[in-house]
Design goal:
The structure is a homodimer.
Chain A (H helix, E strand, L loop, with lengths): L4 E6 L3 H12 L4 E7 L3 H9 L6 E3 L2 H5 L6 E4 L3 H13 L3 E5 L6 H11 L7 E4 L6 H11 L6 E9 L11 H4 L7 H4 L1 H12 L2 E9 L10 E8 L4 E7 L9 H10 L2 H6 L4 E5 L2 E5 L3 E6 L2 E6 L5 H15 L7 H20 L11 H11 L1
Parallel strand pairs in A: 1-2, 1-4, 2-3, 4-5, 5-6, 7-10
Antiparallel strand pairs in A: 7-11, 8-9, 9-10, 11-12, 12-13, 13-14
Helix pairs in contact in A: 4-5, 5-13, 5-14, 6-9, 9-13
């Protein structure tokens, strides 16, 4: 890799365990020159883990004025992230930001309008599922005709969210944007579905709130039609109660043969074809043809490292990036269409970057 | 049981392997007095298997004029079945007919209007899934709180229909009614879903025709919302290609551990609750709570015999029947709503017997 990109890190929460280790490991590609957090102690804690010198900021505007930086890494909650992306794009900085692209398609389009006049300015919207080896393996198996004509896809995502650190972040527990976890987590699933199956043409969904601790809703059942004609079911619930694991209960489950059904409880994905089926989970793909089963164990690459490498190649070498804002916009547009469908009881077509409204917004930005 | 019901059998195709053996076994409850088929040889073949005397008819009107019969068993293709039911109801005969109740909700309502003035006249719409022990076990497990609050249901039905006798019937291969196999087979699935989860409030679906041998469509992905608030995904494909089985391939599959995934290929149903999951197939129910799995093997009762017993008790003892036309109408109404949703790209509410239009039709019939 060529010369490191001097980078300003915005946010010292989630980024500390996820972004910072990846960036430290890529010291030939990036140099974290500054860290912003409204809480000085958090910014200083991150700075302390980095090879100096690292400047610390508690005001966003001051941080963005830091001389010598070329890019920002936005790891903030969804709403302040959009404001920070706008400010950074307006200053001509390259941006690496966490998914979703924004809190709404409308806001995402406004941000894209800021970037439009400067095509060399890279905006990278991190989406680790586009580096999920399982999804790529599934895509390859379909393309190579292994299951004949794909007919249907079942994609359940079942998560006891209350046992995860994400549930602990206050901004996720009281989301100021539509959809809550259904949006925040949903864009991952849609990214994987689009990677495997192509663009989504129409959607419909029913949404339900079972657990009052998970506003505004925690459960969704949806149908999707893809441009290829394929039809699919996508379902989500975050309302599963956590299970307390003891070493003994795990041993018993393994011995009793319950391990597989227990794992399946969290949602085994299934693509049905005329001549076979593909089942997949996070770490394995199973191909079933006739009475024959082939299991592919999928190694988990460090998806964060690969995304920063991809971003670096985009900035330094002008290479096309895998996580373009267009991809991220389309992921979000499908989720927004699902929420609209559920709210208005309509079958809904996801917005596209190419839609008239979007093009005119971009043209407006360029004039 | 009391005095046998003298019965006229309409149709000598499907009935021969399904209805006739059940009726023969219930000779204390039923006596087949006449058999109608447009093909004399088929009617005579069935009559020859029965303890005489049995009259043979090749004209429906003549058959229905047979003196001494109390009931008809309608085992005809869907469209002529509706005509035959109308004729039989009009003559005051009790009717046992195969699902679906009719080719459309509109036609079903017209038939119900014929029955309305004579509340003692029993119309029984056979639906074996309402005697499916698996569905009853699932219903009990949910009611007893075993999985906490039910969140989601996944109900896939994946059938290589071209390897079944149903594909061989000409009227199914060129259906003169909406939906084809999606309707003919779908009412079974909806009966089971309603039995387990209650009434369906709204549906949406996308439909697809992959195999030109299966008009008008063979594949469907749907979302359902139940009155309880539960949301569900229902999916169907009849377009799976048949797998040729050899004894050796079966042994190999069993030895390699592929038996379970191969079986799963045809659709394992899953109900997700806050505190556990229920997986089920035709012959087994698995309850997964935490890391514990409990398997219930479900014995398969002779569902046809049980339905004729139920019909007999309805006719002779005036007992409420499990397969009332109301139930059958609601099954069909959900399928019709799914097809409407797919055709018109709308979220659709299934018609109900209690709906205004239906009530006025019934009132009209009574005036």
């Amino acid at each position: 890799m060529s010369r490191p990109i001097p980078l300003l890190l915005l946010g010292a929460g989630f980024s500390r365990g996820a972004h910072v280790p990846a960036l430290r490991g890529l010291s030939g590609a990036f140099r974290i020159a500054g860290v912003f957090s409204r809480t000085r102690a958090k910014a200083e804690a991150v700075a302390g883990e980095l090879p100096g010198p690292v400047e610390v900021f508690t005001e966003l505007d001051r941080a963005l004025e830091m001389p010598g930086i070329e890019a920002v890494d936005v790891a903030l909650p969804i709403l302040p992230a959009s404001d920070a992306i706008a400010a950074a794009l307006g200053r001509g900085l390259h941006v690496f930001s966490e998914k979703p692209i924004a809190e709404s398609v409308e806001r995402a389009r406004a941000l894209l309008t800021l970037q439009a006049p400067r095509p060399d300015q890279v905006w990278y919207v991190a989406e680790n599922f586009r580096f999920w080896e399982t999804a790529w393996r599934v895509r390859e198996l379909i393309a190579s005709g292994e299951i004949g004509t794909p007919l249907l896809c079942h994609y359940p995502t079942l998560v006891p969210i209350k046992s995860t650190p994400w549930f602990q972040t206050q901004w996720r527990r009281e989301p100021g944007y539509a959809g809550g976890f259904l949006l925040d987590g949903g864009v991952h699933d849609i990214a994987a579905l689009r990677l495997m199956l192509g663009e989504v043409s129409h959607v419909s969904a029913f949404v339900r709130g079972v657990d009052p601790a998970l506003p505004p809703a925690d459960t969704l059942a949806a149908s999707l039609q893809f441009e290829s004609g394929l039809v699919a079911n996508y379902s989500v619930s975050y309302a599963l109660e956590p299970v307390r694991l003891t070493p003994w209960s795990v041993v018993k489950a393994l011995l009793s043969g319950a391990e597989r059904p227990v794992r399946d409880r969290f949602g085994r994905k299934h693509i049905v074809g005329t001549h076979g089926s593909i089942f997949f989970m996070h770490d394995r793909v199973e191909l079933v043809r006739g009475l024959k089963r082939t299991v592919f164990k999928v190694r988990s690459a460090d998806m964060m490292v690969r995304q920063f490498e991809d971003f670096h190649a985009g900035v330094r070498a002008g290479q096309p990036i895998r996580n373009s804002p267009r991809e991220a916009l389309h992921d979000l547009a499908v989720i927004e269409a699902l929420l609209t469908s559920a709210r208005e009881r309509t079958v809904t077509r996801p917005a596209r970057l190419e839609d008239a409204a979007s093009l005119s917004a971009l043209a407006g930005g360029q004039s």
